[in-house]
Specification:
Layout lengths: L10 E6 L13 H10 L5 E5 L7 H4 L13 E7 L16 H13 L6 E2 L14 E5 L6 H16 L1 H4 L1 E6 L2 E4 L2 E5 L6 E6 L14
Antiparallel strand pairs: 1-3, 2-3, 4-5, 5-9, 6-7, 6-9, 7-8
Pfam families: VldE
Protein name: ARB-07466-like C-terminal domain-containing protein
InterPro entries: ARB_07466-like_C
């Protein structure tokens, strides 16, 4: 089973409040920072919280820099918290996990899409094996429809690694994760997306944005 938690980014904000000594001004309470870091799961970013600051004595002296500040008194440790993707407009029956992730992510990013085809009979193995979806484009021949299809292709390529993208086909062009790669038959009313699958879900997966 593919762990869906590895398929998307995470976002959590943690805060820690320990005061630091004002001498020297650049001193950081490393124990407080380390303790906060220990409880954050990943993607740490330590940023100063500019609170409780006051003019340093030198700033008050004649000719002193009036904007000089004492050292920061608090530090915040920021990470990322996962946000689950809801079920989208595609029927997920028979789809493999990376295909489901792609379908849900496209549904969330493009609410104007009201139908995504999945498993169906086909002489090629992609749709029958749950490896492909067809993102149906409203008013596909119009300028707005073509622009929407183009944007979906860009979105899929941008997320190629996360989706396990193998290819996409739109308006007679075949795309790989590297971009356009030659001609592809048809597909003027939908964007076809093929993934590497990742196996069939067992029902315990959570898909993240």
């Amino acid at each position: 089973m593919l762990a869906a938690a590895v398929l998307g980014p995470v976002a959590v904000v943690l805060a820690t409040g320990g005061k630091v000594s004002p001498a020297p001004p650049t001193m950081v309470d490393t124990k407080a920072v380390a303790a906060a870091a220990a409880i954050a799961p990943c993607c740490l970013e330590i940023v100063p919280a500019l609170e409780d600051v006051a003019p340093a004595p030198a700033a008050l002296a004649p000719g002193g820099p009036v904007n000089q500040l004492v050292s920061v008194s608090r530090w915040r440790v920021a990470a990322q918290i996962p946000k689950p993707l809801p079920v989208g407009v595609a029927s997920e029956s028979g789809l493999q996990v990376r295909t489901i992730l792609a379908a849900r992510a496209i549904s969330a990013a493009f609410p104007e899409i009201d139908h995504i085809g999945g498993v169906r009979a086909d002489p090629l193995p992609w749709h029958p094996n749950g490896l492909a979806i067809d993102v149906m484009i409203p008013n596909a021949g119009s300028a707005s429809g073509i622009a929407l299809g183009n944007e979906i292709v860009r979105f899929v390529i941008k997320n190629a690694k996360r989706f396990g993208m193998q290819d996409a086909i739109w308006r007679g062009t075949y795309f790989t994760p590297s971009g356009p790669a030659g001609g592809g038959a048809g597909h003027f009313d939908h964007v076809h997306v093929t993934t590497t699958g990742g196996g069939y879900p067992d029902g315990d997966e959570t898909y993240y944005r």
